[in-house]
């Protein structure tokens, strides 16, 4: 059984909906295409993406600074969790 042709307008609508975060099932229903077609369109677009410019390498000092910032944030979040758990009791 041959599948129906999906024009570029439908493909663009699918990709825009996917980019906005809609679930694939909802996209399929709204665009009147099958779920597998939505998966295929999104997958084809992902394969067509040009490779980005490699990320700039951080110096050791920048990495250590970033690690320290993240460790501070983790400690803040852990304290927040403990506070929330204490309030629950």
Describe the structure.
The protein has 89 residues and is mainly α. 71% of the residues lie in helices and 0% in strands. The chain has four helices and no strands. Helix 1 (8-19) crosses helix 3 (35-48) and helix 2 packs across helix 3 (35-48). The longest helix is centred in the C-terminal third of the chain and has 29 residues, at 60-88. The model has no long low-confidence stretch (mean pLDDT 88).
| SS strand fraction | under 5%
User: How is the main sheet built?
Assistant: none
Which ranges are low-confidence, i.e. pLDDT below 50, for 5 or more consecutive residues?
Answer: none
The pLDDT mean sits at: 88
Strand count: 0
Number of domains: 2
Order of helices and strands: HHHH
Cα distance spanning the termini: 61 Å
Q: Report the C-alpha radius of gyration, rounded.
A: 22 Å
Shape designation: elongated
Fraction in helix: over 70%
SS-based class: mainly alpha
Number of helices: 4
